[in-house]
UniProtKB/TrEMBL annotation, chain A:
PROSITE patterns: RAB, RAS, RHO. The keyword Lipid biosynthesis does not apply. The keyword Secreted does not apply. GO terms for biological process: embryonic genitalia morphogenesis; endocytic recycling; exocytosis; negative regulation of 1-phosphatidyl-1D-myo-inositol 4,5-bisphosphate biosynthetic process; positive regulation of establishment of protein localization; protein secretion. The gene is rab-8. This is Rab8. Belongs to the small GTPase superfamily. Rab family. One of its GO terms (molecular function) is ankyrin repeat binding. It is found in: Endomembrane system. Keywords: GTP-binding, Lipoprotein, Membrane, Nucleotide-binding, Prenylation. SUPFAM superfamilies: P-loop containing nucleoside triphosphate hydrolases. GO terms for cellular component: apical cortex; apical plasma membrane; endosome; endosome membrane; plasma membrane; recycling endosome membrane; synaptic vesicle; trans-Golgi network transport vesicle. The lineage of its organism: Eukaryota, Metazoa, Ecdysozoa, Nematoda, Chromadorea. PANTHER family: LD44762P.
């Protein structure tokens, strides 16, 4: 069966509880928004395929499953992530300050070459702003990441954020591919969930052979 | 920590080791409200994997006993007729010793410094309980049904070695062929032996379709006699006998004809499922699996809180009514706890001591062109012991920096020769010089009860090669405690995922 995409990127959303990670995710994947705050239950990851420079890119975006509430994100969450969006809430100073802690977490557990981006969410609520745009930009410069202010509710800059991150990952990947001489080797990992990997059993092999 | 713990939940789970994680995910999946607590700042408890820079934490989980003023303070949280019971902190992992071994070739710069300077320390994933998965075993089935398989990746254990020892040559490590192709290419067997092996495999194929009773009948008087006698009678020569017994021996020590046949069928059933080898190893180490089940639990609403001093439980009329953590009272209907937490007043029904040594090396015990993930059954060198094996994992399984390996020795303590002695003999023979080692004793403690009817004690760490018994015990505990609920039932596929399904397969194949 033909592949329906050229690249698959695993992306993560990280940030304090209540900054709107799940809303950002839903806005991007389903173009929907729900105002009521419910701690994340039952959201694992969402998928949206986008097109960049004629290439189809499947984005698999993982939510924290609420494990950020007591800073108990599993280290396993970071495995294989190619891009991470750090989210804070512009109406919550604390969530902005904590971005530093989250970055430390990423440096400890994620791949060292993971692409990062900082977004200040809820920028539609100007009257309750606690963190100026300027400070957000400064922080991003400090960590050498891109920066956007977004609103999942007003649908501001959400697509831009994901497209920017995806573009950065894509160009890095293409550079690496060129350096590796056209193909990035795969190390033969097994995904036990995908039925496609399953081969015939030993028995069926043998009986075939014996017949 | 700005958030408070909930006042009341259906189930409090204490400890984030694999069995507790499986049980927490099963509870959350079944719709129970779950609070999952751990005293450590990390996941996995006594089943955890550590980086080289964090591994010292394994020695740091001391818990102070409550003094009388603390007890009287906590007692203020009790109501009438309630009794405070202090939770235990059993020594599941004890006698821990860790050393960097100075080596001549690192004279200029010790390996520790080399690794630190190249920031490679965090590339290690050092398992406390290294195990493998049978491709068609209970764990793989549970991972697939629950879709925890989304969170983990695996590598095939692509080399099985079987040692032989002679006074002249010392210990030689012989590759054991698993698949049909490997058998035909192997030089270790003659044409005649290969033919005998084919005959044996054909017999297994037929035997595997029979039920237990009929299978037993086919083995006739040999059923409970040693497997070797039965193989002899099938016309299998001595070399091939030891070959077969060594290969399946990793699943079944000292097999009788009956248990040997069962193990052979189990082995062959898993061969070819994901590749030539029947065994899988989790990428980033076995500690990942606990975390993956915790994520499933979290996706279904379980609340996670690590690094909390979990101090006591509250008992009333023979039942536990609450847990006290960090001075907060959380009411609950059930408690699931790892053996570590069982109150000191409750005696263990049995304790098995497991000897564990982990070595870090920069050379494989048997060098090959490509890096291999190796399983080595030491049973023939320690015939008295129930368990003795080595597992060598490296960069490909994301458990060590490139060019480095971890060698895990696991053994029960019967007999005169320790697994340590044998492992070190093998190193010497193959000119492998470990630069780091950690040794400890793991106590596999079983409890029939934890002193109250609504407390479930999770299965202990064990020395089994694979996960079937852990998964099975968790299932049984869950089904006995909550007979009306399903244990990790097959997940309903969302529409979106169905669309995606063929693509996922593509990824796996590429």
């Amino acid at each position: 069966m033909a592949k329906t995409y050229d690249y698959l990127f695993k992306l993560l959303l990280i940030g304090d509880s209540g900054v709107g990670k799940t809303c950002v995710l839903f806005r991007f994947s389903d173009d929907s928004f729900n105002n009521s705050f419910i701690s994340t239950i039952g959201i694992d990851f969402k998928i949206r395929t986008i097109e960049l420079d004629g290439k189809k890119i499947k984005l698999q975006i993982w939510d924290t499953a609420g494990q950020e509430r007591f800073r108990t994100i599993t280290t396993a969450y970071y495995r294989g992530a190619m891009g991470i969006i750090l989210v804070y809430d512009i109406t919550n100073e604390r969530s902005f300050e904590n971005i530093k802690n989250w970055i430390r977490n990423i440096e400890e557990h994620a791949a060292s070459d993971v692409e990062r981006m900082i977004i200040g969410n809820k920028c539609d609520i100007e009257e309750r702003r606690e963190v100026s745009r300027d400070r957000g930009e400064q922080l991003a410069i400090e960590y050498g990441t891109k920066f956007l202010e977004t609103s999942a509710k007003a649908n501001l800059n959400i697509d831009e954020a994901f497209f920017t991150l995806a573009r950065d990952i894509k160009s890095k990947m293409e550079q690496n591919e060129m350096r590796a001489g056209g193909s990035v080797s795969n190390t033969g990992r097994v995904n036990v969930g995908g039925s496609g990997t399953q081969k015939k059993s030993f028995f069926s092999n043998w009986s075939c052979n014996l017949l | 920590m700005d958030e408070k713990l909930p006042e009341s939940v259906d189930v409090v789970v204490l400890g984030t080791g694999l069995p507790e994680a499986i049980l927490a995910s099963a509870c959350a999946r079944a719709g129970l409200s779950v609070l999952h607590l751990d005293r450590n700042e990390y996941y996995g408890g006594d089943w955890s994997s550590f980086t080289m820079s964090m591994v010292h934490e394994v020695t740091e989980n001391q818990v102070k006993k409550l003094d009388s003023s603390e007890i009287s303070k906590l007692s203020e949280l009790l109501t009438e007729n309630e009794q405070l019971i202090e939770l235990g902190n059993r020594e599941i992992v004890e006698n821990i010793e860790m050393t960097w071994i100075p080596r001549g070739k690192d004279e200029e710069k010790p390996m520790k410094t080399q690794l630190e300077e190249a920031s490679q320390m965090r590339r290690f994933s050092i398992d406390l309980v290294p195990k493998i998965l049978l491709s068609k075993g209970a764990m793989v089935q549970t991972l697939c049904d629950s879709q925890v398989s989304h969170y983990a990746e695996f590598k095939l254990v692509n080399r099985q070695l079987c040692p032989t020892e002679t006074p002249e040559a010392g210990i030689t490590l012989n590759p054991v062929p698993c698949s049909k192709g490997e058998i035909f290419q192997s030089n270790a067997l003659s044409i005649l032996e290969k033919r005998a092996l084919m005959k044996f495999i054909t017999f297994c194929t037929q035997w595997s379709t029979k039920d237990t009773e009929e299978g037993r009948k086919l083995l006739a008087e040999h059923a409970d006699r040693p497997f070797s006698e039965f193989l002899e009678q099938m016309g299998v020569g001595k070399t091939l006998q030891s070959f077969i017994i060594n290969t399946i021996g990793i699943l079944q020590q000292r097999p009788t004809a009956m248990t040997g046949m069962l193990a052979s069928c189990q082995f062959m059933d898993s061969v070819g499922h994901f590749g030539p080898s029947p065994f899988l190893f989790p990428l980033y180490g076995c500690g990942e699996l606990s975390q993956c089940f915790c994520r499933l639990a979290a996706v279904f609403g379980s609340l996670y809180c690590l690094g909390r001093p979990v101090q006591a439980i509250v008992k009333k009329d023979g039942k536990i009514t609450a847990v006290i953590a960090n001075g907060d009272r959380v009411n609950c209907r059930y408690i699931v706890m790892s053996p570590r937490f069982v109150p000191e007043t409750v005696p263990a029904s049995s304790t098995l001591k497991i000897e564990r040594i982990v070595y870090a090396t920069d050379k494989s015990i048997k060098e090959a062109e490509k890096e291999q993930l190796t399983l080595l059954n030491l049973a023939s060198l320690r015939p008295d012991a129930a368990v003795s094996r080595l597992v060598e994992v490296g960069f490909e399984a994301c458990t060590a920096p490139k060019g480095h390996f971890l060698v895990h020795a696991t053994g029960t303590q019967e007999g005169e020769t320790s697994v340590k002695t044998i492992a070190e003999k093998i190193f010497e023979k193959n000119e492998v010089e470990p630069y780091w080692k950690m040794s400890f004793t793991a106590n596999s403690m079983k409890f029939d009860t934890a002193g109250a009817e609504n407390v479930v004690v999770a299965p202990p760490v064990d020395a089994n090669l694979h996960y079937a018994s852990v998964v099975e015990e968790c299932r049984q505990l869950f089904c006995t405690t909550w007979p009306e609920l399903d244990f990790l039932p097959r997940a309903m596929k969302k529409e979106e995922e169905e669309e995606e399904e063929p693509e996922t397969e593509e990824i796996a194949e590429n």
